[in-house]
């Protein structure tokens, strides 16, 4: 009987084990990866790979940290917590790029973080963080404790990696780093000590421009499939290459992104397409079969056009995103409405090819913000054929504005229909919400309702990036029209001859960059920059040197008054100056300006400014200038050199340095009276 009971128990245990195997059969492959990962974890950690680098040797200082992030770091530090910059901002600073944001991590828990700041809230479920609102910015602050709690199930694996005798804070940072997505995002920067902590050879991978995961890529992407999109975004923006492990895992797990929430998909795509790397991101999405899931219509278009690309016939979709990348970047991003509008516009052209002139007017009205100006610009510029197939059907200039308005309205309605298609399941994985659909359709409402009376109210051709990032409709229409015009024209659009940024200098030294920025600000009507002020100061220094040399020469000469013979020469020159009355007035005005400018520099920069301000010297200087002004011609040299007149004035001011001051002063007073009488009689005769 006992034998039968034992056999029964064995049978039941086998049935239970078979049931478990069948129940978890679909997770067998990830489980195998975890076992493989555990085997790799059980290996001893090489502490020699841990690096602590002086950030100043890599060109990173605390001055590069924006004020809001620096305030958060200082407050946490003052309360006794350790605080670091972590992730992408450290990576971008090492690559001399502008970080998208500056994330902070601290040893304080989330509740302690929230108590330090008046305006803060904790968000997120799986990986909660604290968002701090400070000085108009939002800083995301995470806690080491959050990652530690999330990794509690792996503690038995991680304990085998703990090196003997390591520092406690080193252990905290290291445990956090191994839970991150990529090695280049696992760097910590302590701005108080100017130290960068690297536990996974992240700096070495950055030097090699290589993207690598901290654990096997298949396991990393299985745990969080959003890392696939994040890896593509980082590689597209920084020009990184994938290791073989990541390449294989991305091909195998590309379909897993359908499990993501559509808001997360929208966020990742917005990071790809609104921050200056749209063209390369589209290429990588297509390479790993993700474009077929997210944007099947455009994926099919690219597959169809792949064999037809030539220099004469480029793909219009890629040219649109190429011109978008030239206008936006990480420090001046666009809103999602811009790239969704571009995708819808292109889909409308592929579905129903349009006449090139209609596209010209469509884009020009969006750009200029007025119907009449847009049509006039299109009629003046739309001369050369547009070579985009199948989007453009031909070119025929429509004479009637009424017919043209109907055509443009039909195109706008077609674009709005394509926006609606993005919210339907037939278009593939739906990630565009109804709210986004309404916001994008509003861009084209002005071309549907009362197009001929449209007036945006925008007064300049300069992009307001603050309003563009907030999704302002007027600014989004303007930039959308500019991108389309650049695409179909291949050149400048209206107003760009004055406001377009010139090429950055090839040698990026401090002076050349400051001069470039100075010219750009001057064109945009901004206040003078430091470079402009330096330029003006340099010009003033030249004037100072010039007049200082003159004064030095004059100081060696003890003659202090204008000789009578030279006054008679001036008198003769005035008599011989025979000019028509009108011409004389014009030229006299020009000479007056010249004399005023000379006196302006002389008064500001002369080393003898106090002496020049004396009453007698001023009177003599003004009268001699008037005498020179009446005989000067813009086409011929002045018969009496103005420099001589200035020399006499300066000579008069410097003569006080003689040994016998009383005698010289009396002599100057007498001579001043004589010369005053001579000059007054001279002007009366004139």
From TrEMBL:
<dbReference type="InterPro" id="IPR052191">
    <property type="entry name" value="tRNA_ntf/polyA_polymerase_I"/>
</dbReference>
<dbReference type="InterPro" id="IPR002646">
    <property type="entry name" value="PolA_pol_head_dom"/>
</dbReference>
<dbReference type="InterPro" id="IPR043519">
    <property type="entry name" value="NT_sf"/>
</dbReference>
<keyword id="KW-0694">RNA-binding</keyword>
<protein>
    <recommendedName>
        <fullName>Poly A polymerase head domain-containing protein</fullName>
    </recommendedName>
</protein>
<dbReference type="Pfam" id="PF12627">
    <property type="entry name" value="PolyA_pol_RNAbd"/>
</dbReference>
<feature type="compositionally biased region" description="Basic and acidic residues">
    <location>
        <begin position="636"/>
        <end position="654"/>
    </location>
</feature>
<keyword id="KW-0808">Transferase</keyword>
<dbReference type="GO" id="GO:0003723">
    <property type="term" value="F:RNA binding"/>
</dbReference>
<dbReference type="GO" id="GO:0000166">
    <property type="term" value="F:nucleotide binding"/>
</dbReference>
<keyword id="KW-0547">Nucleotide-binding</keyword>
<feature type="region of interest" description="Disordered">
    <location>
        <begin position="615"/>
        <end position="686"/>
    </location>
</feature>
<feature type="domain" description="Poly A polymerase head">
    <location>
        <begin position="83"/>
        <end position="209"/>
    </location>
</feature>
<dbReference type="InterPro" id="IPR032828">
    <property type="entry name" value="PolyA_RNA-bd"/>
</dbReference>
<comment type="similarity">
    <text>Belongs to the tRNA nucleotidyltransferase/poly(A) polymerase family.</text>
</comment>
<dbReference type="Pfam" id="PF01743">
    <property type="entry name" value="PolyA_pol"/>
</dbReference>
<feature type="domain" description="tRNA nucleotidyltransferase/poly(A) polymerase RNA and SrmB- binding">
    <location>
        <begin position="244"/>
        <end position="301"/>
    </location>
</feature>
<dbReference type="GO" id="GO:0016779">
    <property type="term" value="F:nucleotidyltransferase activity"/>
</dbReference>
<dbReference type="GO" id="GO:0001680">
    <property type="term" value="P:tRNA 3'-terminal CCA addition"/>
</dbReference>
């Amino acid at each position: 009987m006992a034998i039968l009971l034992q056999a029964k128990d064995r049978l039941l245990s086998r049935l239970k084990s078979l049931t478990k195997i069948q129940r978890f059969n679909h997770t067998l492959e990830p489980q195998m990866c975890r076992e493989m990962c555990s085997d790799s974890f059980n290996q001893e950690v090489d502490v020699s790979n841990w690096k602590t680098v002086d950030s100043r040797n890599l060109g990173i200082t605390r001055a590069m940290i924006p004020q809001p992030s620096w305030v958060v770091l200082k407050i946490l530090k003052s309360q006794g917590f350790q605080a670091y910059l972590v992730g992408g901002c450290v990576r971008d600073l090492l690559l001399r790029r502008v970080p998208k944001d500056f994330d902070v991590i601290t040893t304080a828990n989330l509740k302690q973080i929230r108590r330090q700041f008046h305006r803060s809230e904790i968000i997120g479920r799986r990986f909660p963080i604290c968002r701090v609102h400070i000085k108009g910015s939002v800083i995301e602050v995470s806690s080491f404790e959050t990652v530690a709690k999330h990794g509690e199930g792996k503690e038995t694996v991680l304990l085998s990696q703990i090196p003997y005798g390591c520092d406690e804070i080193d252990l905290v940072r290291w445990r956090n780093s191994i839970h991150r997505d990529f090695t280049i995002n696992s760097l910590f920067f302590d701005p108080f000590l100017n130290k960068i902590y690297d536990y996974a050879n992240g700096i070495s991978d950055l030097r090699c421009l290589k993207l690598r995961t901290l654990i096997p890529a298949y396991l990393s992407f299985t745990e969080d499939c959003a890392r696939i999109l994040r890896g593509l975004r980082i590689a597209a923006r920084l020009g990184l290459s994938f290791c073989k492990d990541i390449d294989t895992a991305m091909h195998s797990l590309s379909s897993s992104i359908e499990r993501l929430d559509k808001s997360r998909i929208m966020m990742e795509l917005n990071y790809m397409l609104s921050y200056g790397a749209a063209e390369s991101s589209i290429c990588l999405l297509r390479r790993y079969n993700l474009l077929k899931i997210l944007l099947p219509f455009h994926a099919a278009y690219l597959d169809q056009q792949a064999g037809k690309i030539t220099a004469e016939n480029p793909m219009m979709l890629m040219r649109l995103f190429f011109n978008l990348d030239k206008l936006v970047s990480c420090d001046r991003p666009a809103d999602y409405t811009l790239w969704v509008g571009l995708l819808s516009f292109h889909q409308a052209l592929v579905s129903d090819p349009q006449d090139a002139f209609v596209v010209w007017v469509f884009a020009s009205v969006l750009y200029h913000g007025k119907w009449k100006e847009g049509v006039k610009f299109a009629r003046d510029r739309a001369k050369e054929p547009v070579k985009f197939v199948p989007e453009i059907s031909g070119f025929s200039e429509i004479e009637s504005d009424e017919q043209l308005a109907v055509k443009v309205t039909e195109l706008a309605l077609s674009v709005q229909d394509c926006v609606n298609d993005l919210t339907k399941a037939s278009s593939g994985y739906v990630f565009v919400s109804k709210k986004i659909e309404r916001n994008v359709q509003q861009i084209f409402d002005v071309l549907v309702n009362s197009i001929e009376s449209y007036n945006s109210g925008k007064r300049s051709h300069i992009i307001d990036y603050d309003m563009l990032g907030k999704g302002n409709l007027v600014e989004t229409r303007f930039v959308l029209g500019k991108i389309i015009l650049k695409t179909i024209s291949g050149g400048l659009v209206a107003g760009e001859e004055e406001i377009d940024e010139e090429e950055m200098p090839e040698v990026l030294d401090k002076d050349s960059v400051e001069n470039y920025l100075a010219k750009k600000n001057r064109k945009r009507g901004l206040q003078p920059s430091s470079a402009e002020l330096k330029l003006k100061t340099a010009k003033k220094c030249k004037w100072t040197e010039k007049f200082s040399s003159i004064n030095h020469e004059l100081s060696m000469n003890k003659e202090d008054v204008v000789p009578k013979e030279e006054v008679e020469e001036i008198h003769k020159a005035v008599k011989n100056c025979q000019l028509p009355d009108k011409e004389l007035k014009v030229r006299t005005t020009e000479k007056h300006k010249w004399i005023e400018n000379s006196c302006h520099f002389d008064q500001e920069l002369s080393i003898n400014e106090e002496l020049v301000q004396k009453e007698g010297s001023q009177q003599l200087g003004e009268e001699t200038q008037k005498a020179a002004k009446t005989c000067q011609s813009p086409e011929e040299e002045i018969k009496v050199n103005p420099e001589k007149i200035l020399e006499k004035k300066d000579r008069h001011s410097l003569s006080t340095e003689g040994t016998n001051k009383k005698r010289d002063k009396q002599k100057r007073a007498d001579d001043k009276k004589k010369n005053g009488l001579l000059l007054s009689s001279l002007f009366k005769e004139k």
